[in-house]
Amino acid sequence: MYATEILEEKRLCNIGSYEERLGGFNWAIAEKEMGWGRGDPLNIGWHLTDRICRLGLARKPALLWEGSDGRERTYTFGDLRLLSNAVAAALSRLGLQPSERVCLFLDRVPELYIAFVGILKMGGIVQPLFSAFGEESLLTRLLDAGTAAVLTQKKHLGKLRRIRARLPALRTIVVVDAEGLALKDGEVALDLDSEPRLERFPLFPATAETPSILHYTSGTTGQPKGAQHVHHSLVSQYLTAKWVLDLRSDDVYWCNADPGWVTGTSYGIIGPWSNGVTQAVLDSGFGADRWYGFIERRRISVWYSAPTAIRLLMREGTQTAKRHDLSSLRHLASVGEPLNPEAVHWSREAFGLPFHDTYWQTETGCIVISNYPGMPVKPGSMGKPFPGIAAAVLDPTTLEPHREPGRVGVIGLRPGWPSMIRGYWNNPDGYAKKFANGWYLTGDRATVDADGYFWFVGRDDDVINTGGHLVGPFEVESALLEHPAVAESAAVAKPHPVNMEVVKAFIALKPGFTPGPDLEIEIMNFVRKRLSPIAMPQEIAFVASLPRTRSGKIVRRVLRAAEWGEPVGDLSTLMED
What we know:
single chain; alpha/beta; nine-stranded mixed beta sheet; five-stranded parallel beta sheet; 19 helices; 23% strand
């Protein structure tokens, strides 16, 4: 970006001067704009709908939805308020109580977005789950959360029926498209098209620290962890959406992320709607012409995507983009994994705009490091910390900040911002391990340059980042071991030109089984069915044995190093064959 362009963008963007925003920053800036005072009730559902309607925006479109079959629906903020009231009332009639976990196991259909708001209004804890999850992934998360109800579609109902007997806390399954379906005991239908719109609902008086959303994230060891957010997270999500994504009243905003992941709730629901911004949703898989056509039809102005998607678009070339009128776009941002410099240069050529990388995690709840509108973009850099976020690169041994630029260390954040999770569900020890020496430890490594820009180096553990989705090796290995041919297994990240990383499995077979292509495909599909397509190994290596320490622990770093061409490190603790 040229200097004159930077000056013009700085003058027009919401954040204005980054340097000026740093001085004397306080989260009360957002609280004042939202009309919320400390000690007052704070319910996210009310702020996304009733508050926006009180600002005179009841007739403004809130959701522009398109399905993969070409169906279209439009909902105003007034529709959203009335229909979320109806969902809240329906769930209450079913006997659901505040603080109970209510799972959304849905595709990106309007019912998901409306029910998300309704659950919060009645005081429930929303548990969004990716609809492509298989039975084992679904069971693990519902069992851990003690989920009381699940909202789903008939296309996913079979998975729930097959595991329901193993879920003692699950009382109700709500099917949002149950027409023509024979429902069983404990299953009810909820049709928003016929459900009476409700003018008033007795809103649950949530406070800042009332639990709101339970997102599950993968770790290196053990089962997925439930990251518990609270209603106060709204403060961070409102302001970061306004300053980082530069959302304005006349925008039409598109976030590619599925609400089963934190980006799809923080910035696919809460961020835009708390700012009174219209958002568009495309419930469809990837296709360059399909996506560009959607941007063209809906006149998308702000687009929040992922590096994997951008790399797929790059493979189609700039000519595909130039076949469409994309002149409505004015700001682009990416999330989920490091954005390579080539993608920034390519987006300037294809769209006349750079993608701005943003960095954050499920645990942070909001963007914590970013390239901001009006600030020079250094292609390949994560950017600088958001005002109000104290970030540093820490020495891995002392956990003290590095003083010299360019040294690799762990990204640490000073606790205390509004959207930081308040714990892991049923796992206080795991949560406590995320903090040391006064820092929240992200588990990611980076450097900082002389200008204060952060540069991502890699994960500090074995978690696999495939297409922006974190996959825990333990969960993959557990699923592999359920296959009758597998004696032991290890899952590691393998580099990939589009997804950045994919899952590669190393497997030692039981006696009587012979490695080969047919068995490889069988095992891949076995994992896909139990977990999800993103957790399925893209490659399997059959081995005689796996590298272990003398105490018997599998050492994944040895396998990973071979895939990435990295030094193996100290092998003195490994068991000799």
